[in-house]
Amino acid sequence: MVDYRRQEHHEFLQAAAQAMADEPLQSALTRLGDTLGPRNRAAYAALAESDELRERARAIKNATLLELDRHLQDLQASVERHGGNVHFASDGEDACRIIGEILDAAGARRVVKSKSMTTEEIHLNRYLEERDFDVTETDFGEFIIQVAGQRPSHLVAPAVHLRVDEVARILESDAGHPLPSEPQQLAAFARRRLRDRFAAADAGITGANFGIAETGSIVLVSNEGNARLTVSLPRVHIAVMGMEKVIPRWEHLPVFLKVLARAATGQKMSVYTSIVNGPRREGELDGAEAFHLVILDNGRSRILGGPLRESLFCIRCGACLNACPIYRNVGGHAYGGVYAGPIGAVLTPLYDGLKANHHLPHASSLCGACQAACPVKIAIPELLVRLREQLETNKSQSWIERTAYSTWARMMRSAGLYRLATWLATRTLGRLYRRSRWISRLPGLSGWTGARDFPAPAPERFRDWWRREGNA
Amino acid sequence: MKREAFFDRVRNAVRSAQRYRVNVQQFADRPPRSVQGGDLAARLAQEITAVGGTAHVAEDLDDARRYARGLFAENNVQRALCWQHSALEELRIDELLDEADVTAIDHATLAGLPREAQRREMLAADLGITGVDFAVAETGSLLLAAAAGRERVASLVPPVHLAIVRCQQIVADLFDAFERFDPRALPSNLTFITGPSKTGDIELQLTTGVHGPGAWHVLVVP
Predict the structure, then answer these.
(1) What ipTM was assigned to the predicted interfaces of this complex?
(2) Residue A225 to residue B210, Cβ atoms within 8 A
(3) Cα four-point dihedral sign A141, A142, A143, A144
């Protein structure tokens, strides 16, 4: 058994099988699909121009990435104009080191964090804890996950795989006394507990949903308010942003805000959208006194220069997870990377290597539900097919596969051969399976027939039927 | 040097990216508005209720003062963290607090204190009273800009938040709110608030007040 809730990069099929036998997880996933999936569709349907807004958001992302260097320069200049500092990190190690140095220079030991997938990506918590920083995740779900020593299983609902009684047991280990298995009371416990941490914190670390080049703004979207506390109470604020999160202008932000929450949870707006423009100003009593923005590459430039650059449009809303029939069966941990679900099946092979994650591009039925749910309409099925293609070209095929494909290609190119082949198929397999129409066992193809039946050819060719009906 | 290496990589990637086409539509015009006119106060109140807040559209200042007085009593408020803002002055909030025996904490009270004491005072409040810069009828959102005397924590730290909105501060659509700001002169912090603090982190069950205020009152005054 793999401990797939804690470990990364395990065998997908094994973890998926474990997940599918995990009953509490299965009921959690059913609930997720039945709640958030329909909310996303209803929210799009209720806004007449949602389709156009999604296309606009997509167009902005595309244009921005094609001039990313210029927009990042502008962002740096704008942040510095406000009195903030900008750091560029080429990989996760680099980013962790930079953040450690900022904290050391500020004499900060106690750190509060608001939910950020980018800091998960660079394993920041591990880095800081190894250096004896006191790090607290303050998003309720992330706090539960941190106490449990697990990994988040969903982009926006990290503890969605846990049942309320499991959460109560986990939090009891932090509280040191029994807690009731009731969400509102557990939330009240977390509020008290985390308030103390906020009150004592020296530094706050956040991600960034968007960075606006024109204004030097960092935008943080949350429902709980922990991101606001993280940037309001501690004296130092460090925001960690993947470099693809930059948008050029102020007027672009509402286009994204109008689709982000609708996609994620079906809300028109998340409860709190904070636009941070550098450190606090003269006379202000709250807000960080020092602001640092760490801009992260970590493989993004490699993706940007390649055929799968559309994956960088992602705004991390989680809608594709809720819509995906595979995610809804195996949950987030099975994917083994930081990013789960359909977009994770694209991003994890891109960031961490295709070979090590060769199952992920196949962890999709290519049904297209992810693309339909996506606020920036990323063609996820197409990207997965491209990854599958890369997998095949890197692989040496067996002689059976080579012969099968070359025969198939020759047949499809010749009308006469095609006619002959279909005639043969209808006369043999078609007649043999006239009644059931499905083949449950095929010699040499047990990989297919082990899990599903193979459709038998029709007993009669279409051209014969057409002629017989007198339409010729 | 490091920065240059970073940008070299990005520039190379951008050059290489031009070779791969991604299908996108082109737009030359402004994006469409979702809400354009109508009774904006009524729409705002409706959206605020829909997200779990309490909205009261006051007939006049007396009615508004009655509402505030009721709120103080109902929540047994002891300490209120207040903005220095003309909307509060117009309602003579300080008088109401005084009558109800509530300690008012504002910028003037806090500014003289050392940092630790400031933080303690902020965290001890059980009500936050603020004005707003704009309200968005489309989404039921309030937009609050930070400034000296307009502390961010007032709308965030206490368990109850009372926001006072003037009718003429209501804009129809989210796009309208953005247009009211000069991108070259933004305040240090701008926050859209759309509802009481919420989480669905346990079994997707809606739980309020996990970090921010669990009760969110919006008082619309003429």
Answers:
(1) 0.97
(2) yes
(3) positive
